[in-house]
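Researcher: Going back to the complex we discussed earlier. I've cleaned up the inputs and rechecked each line, so this should be the final set. Can you rerun the prediction on the complete assembly and write out the structure?
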Amino acid sequence: MKKNFKIFSITLLVFLATFQAKAHHGYPQYNLGGEGMALHGKIVTYRISNPHSYMTLIVVDDAGEEEVWAIETTDTARGMRTKGFTPTTLQAGDEVTMMVAPALNGDRTAVFRSVELADGTILPASGQ
Amino acid sequence: MRVKLKDSFVSLVMGGLLLLPASIVSAQGSPEFDSPEFDSRDLSGVWGAIPGSGNNFNYGIGTPPPPLTQWGMENLRLEAITHAAVGDRTAEFTINGVPTNTLGSNYPGKDCEPLGQPANLDYVAFGPMEFVYSRSGDRIIQMLEYHREWRTLWLTDEHPEDIYPSYMGDSIAYWEGNTLVVDTTGFNGLTQLTQGVGHRPSDAFHMVERYTRVSYDRVELVMDMYDEKAWGEGASWSGLAKTFALMPGERLQEFICVPSEFAAFDSALEEAIQ
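Model: Rerun complete. Updated structure for the full complex:
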C-alpha cells in the first residue's frame, strides 16, 4: 500500500512539474512585482534558447528533501548574451544562489531574475 | 616661444582626438549633434530598439484596433491570449472581449509557428532587423532576427495578380520623397494579428508602412492597417508609430525557435525529479 502511494505521489509530481514546464511563455502565474525569493541549489539543466532560456535547479528544502525547480527566463538568447551569459556560464552540478519571481500558487516554477555564481559573480550585473 | 607654439599644437591635436570619439558618440545618441552624412534613401544596416527607451514593443499600447465586425467575431476572434491587452497591460479583456493573460493561450509565434506581419515588427524590440539592398536594384530584403523571418520588398508599384496567400504577404515598395512606402497584401490569415490583439487578420488584411530615415541613426515607421472583413469597410488601425535605432557593427544573430528545446526541458525536468 505504502509502495503504491509512493508510486502515485511520484507520478503526480512528475505530471505537475511537467505540466508547469509546458506552460511556457506566460507570466500571469508568477509574482513578478514582488520582492522575489532566493533559491540555493545545484544546477541540473541550463539552456540558452529561443524564444526563452531556462534552467532546472535542485534545492534542498527545510525538511532535507531534494526538490526540483524549473526556472524560465524572459530573455531570448540575444538577451542572455547581452546580460553576460555564455553557453557555459552555468554547468550541471554548479552550486548557485538564484533570485527568482516564484509562482503565485506555490508551485516550484519561477521566473529568473539573477544568479550568484560560486565565485561571487552576479549575473546579470546590477543595472542590466 | 617655439616651445609654446609646439605645446599649443600638441594641445590642439590632443583636443581634436578627444573630440573625435565624442562626436561619434553624439551622432549615435543625439542626432542633432554632428550627425554623419547619410543618404535618406539608404536604410541598409541593422536597426533595433532605442537603447534605454523601453522596449518600443506594442503598436497598440494606447491605440486599440477597431472593434471586430460580426463576421470577424465569428471567424477571426481567438478564445484567449497571453500577455497584455491592447491599450492596457493590466486589462482582463481586449475590446472584443477576448480574455488576456490566460496561461497557455495564444500569442504570436506560439509553438514556434511563424509570427508573420505585422506581429514581427513588434518584436524588433527583442531581435533587430536589417535592410539589405539587392545589387539588381529591384528589391530590398528586410531580415527579421526574431524567429528568423524575412520578407522581400519589391520595388515596383503593382502587386502581381496571382498572389498566393502567405504569412508575410506580398510587399511592394516605392519612394515618396525620402519615405519608403511598403504596401503589403495577400496574407493567409493564420497568425495572431500582433501582441495583445485577440484576433487574426482576414484574407483582406492590408497594411501600409512608411519608413523615413530622419537622421543618421534613426528610422521612423508609421503604419496604417485596413481589414474590411475584420473591421468593416473604411475602418483602419492607423498612425501606429515606432522609431528604430541604428546599431553600428551589429550582426543579426541566429534565432531559431525549436520545438524540441521545450521537449528537452520537459525531459530534463522529469529525469531530475525521478
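Model: Worth noting: Helices of chain B lie at 2-29, 70-75, 119-122, 259-273.
Researcher: Good, that matches what I expected from the previous run.
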